[in-house]
């Protein structure tokens, strides 16, 4: 099977987004990279160009529905999109700092609203061709609500569930949907966590795992090992057991 040749990534200047862009960068590949941080995005595009890819950048905010529709339509007109990765996401709060009301709303606007503003404009384009792949960035936090950032957990749970339903609906149309569930990847976001993060992986390794799993059209995957077992435990343990170990003292 020929891999994707036209790939769109949101949050492409962040740790995972930029690692994914570099993982896919190669001669013959068109990368459509979006982010709100111009300097960082310019740097990522430069690295991808050096690897032989053709990059198309847009300083776009995933919360801006109109701008996202325009960007995705324009990108698809340059080269029909094979793979769209809804990667952009934020988090606020930690074990010492509670999220503010504005921060909670911002998390949902970026994580859930931004995902919808990415996926919904791409769907009609892929449906018209009866092919394509959509990848949604969820998180191990989607499997339980944790006190350090309830909004992040809830937003990632919404992404996961939406992806599951979308996958079942679109399969008959030749479009595949994959839900990515990372555990701990070394990023500025996880650097702010005030707890141990065993088996945390570098963003380049994470990107390699994601690229490999997407090539296999995996419907949903948790990484790295042994976090699939952790995910299973979080899904089946009674709530009071998880609450006992996670409640704030």
Q: How would you describe this structure to a colleague?
A:
This protein is α/β, with parallel strands linked by helices and 249 residues long. The protein has a single domain (6-246), classed as NAD(P)-binding Rossmann-like Domain (Rossmann fold, 3-Layer(aba) Sandwich), CATH 3.40.50. It is built from nine helices and seven strands. A seven-stranded parallel beta sheet has the order 3-2-1-4-5-6-7, sandwiched between helices. Strand 5, helix 5 (150-170) and strand 6 (175-182) form a beta-alpha-beta unit. 39% of the residues are buried. The model has no long low-confidence stretch (mean pLDDT 88).
Task: Please give the structural blueprint.
Layout: E1 6-10, H1 15-24, E2 30-35, H2 38-50, E3 54-59, H3 65-78, E4 83-86, H4 101-129, E5 132-137, H5 150-170, E6 175-182, H6 188-191, H7 203-215, E7 220-223, H8 227-236, H9 239-246
Parallel strand pairs: 1-2, 1-4, 2-3, 4-5, 5-6, 6-7
Brief summary:
With 249 residues, the chain is an alpha/beta fold.
């Amino acid at each position: 099977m020929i891999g994707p040749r036209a790939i769109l990534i949101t949050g492409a200047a962040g740790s995972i987004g930029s690692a994914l862009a570099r993982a896919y960068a190669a001669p013959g590949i068109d990368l459509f990279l979006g982010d709100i941080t111009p300097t960082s995005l310019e740097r990522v595009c430069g690295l991808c160009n050096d690897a032989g890819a053709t990059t198309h950048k847009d300083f776009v905010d995933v919360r801006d529905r109109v701008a996202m529709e325009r960007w995705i339509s324009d990108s698809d007109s340059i080269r029909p999109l094979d793979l769209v990765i809804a990667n952009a996401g934020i988090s606020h709060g930690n074990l010492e700092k509670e999220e503010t009301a504005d921060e909670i709303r911002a998390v949902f606007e970026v994580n859930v609203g931004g995902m919808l503003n990415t996926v919904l404009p791409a769907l009609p384009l892929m449906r018209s061709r009866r092919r394509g792949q959509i990848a949604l960035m969820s998180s191990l936090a989607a499997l339980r609500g944790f006190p350090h950032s309830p909004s992040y957990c809830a937003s990632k749970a919404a992404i996961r569930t939406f992806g599951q339903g979308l996958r079942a609906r679109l399969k008959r149309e030749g479009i595949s949907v994959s839900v990515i569930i990372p555990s701990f990847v070394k990023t500025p976001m996880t650097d702010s966590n005030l707890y141990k993060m065993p088996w945390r992986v570098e963003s380049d390794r994470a990107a390699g795992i994601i690229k490999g799993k997407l090539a296999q059209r995996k419907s949903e995957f948790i990484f790295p090992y042994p976090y699939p077992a952790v995910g299973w435990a979080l899904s089946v343990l009674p709530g009071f057991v998880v609450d006992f170990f996670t409640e704030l003292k």
